[in-house]
Amino acid sequence: MFEHWPYLGVFIVLLAAGLGSPIPEDIPLLTGGYLCAADLAQLRWMIPVGIAGVLAGDLCLFTFARILGHRIVEYPLTRRLVNPSRLVLAESLFARHGVKIIFAGRFLPGLRPMIFAASGVLKVPYRTFLAVNGMAACISVPIVVMLGMFFGNHIEQIQGRFRTATHVIVLAAATALLIIGGIYLHKRRRYLATKVELERGIDAAAIERVVSTSTDPGDATDPADSSESDALTDSQLTRFRQ
Fold it and tell me: Helix 26-37 and helix 5-18: axis angle, to 10°?
């Protein structure tokens, strides 16, 4: 019976972390790896338990956000995880990148709750959320658990290095996004400038065509016809006077 306690303990702590407990997810996962190194648990079971615990916590937050909508920021329990300004930021990221941001959110500890809450507020289907987040968890969880297993005696150092690596990844991703955004804006500006010049050329050509049509010599009145008309009018006036 007691051989199942390590798995249950890791699962409960991961679930609590997903529900707002001030415990980072990497601590129970690293602890699970350390328990495997100490022969108190088996890696083949610890990794699935870790994935299940991570997804269970994420699914609880996602479900709360899906039910409450933007009112999720009004409750003390969820407000610690989701503040209004970051929720708006997560929604804007989601609007630009779609479900891809759910995958990236698994590797962004600071924005992860807001991204998952935004997914719920925006009514992402459960199947889509679990599939995308599950793929990301299948990458991150085994890595952290195995780090705890192979370097269990230095778990505090591993935790610090893991956070440092996460920050570096986030910084690199932000820099890449800024570069891509700058290139996109530059190309967009050039496209708009070209479009404006093209429209001006079309308008100028249309105006010139209208002007030339209105001043066509074929439409002008012949002076001879005008004189004849004037002569006819004078003869009619003479007869009228007689």
Answer: 170
pLDDT at 190: 73
Contacts of 235 (CB under 8 A, 6+ apart): none
Per the CB < 8 A criterion, the answer to whether 145 and 33 are in contact is yes
Q: How far apart are CA 121 and CA 68, in angstroms?
A: 8
Does pLDDT of 108 surpass 90?
no
Q: What is the pLDDT of residues 148-188, one digit of tens each?
A: 888 765 555 555 665 666 666 666 666 777 777 777 776 77
Q: What is the CA radius of gyration of the chain?
A: 36
Residue 201 Cα distances to 12, 15, 187, 204, 206, angstroms: 69, 64, 21, 5, 9
Bin 98: left if φ > 0, else alpha if -120 < ψ < 50, else beta. left
Q: Is the confidence at residue 49, as pLDDT, over 90?
A: yes
First vs last C-alpha separation in the chain = 137
Q: How far apart are CA 151 and CA 34, in angstroms?
A: 8
Domain ranges of the chain: 2-155
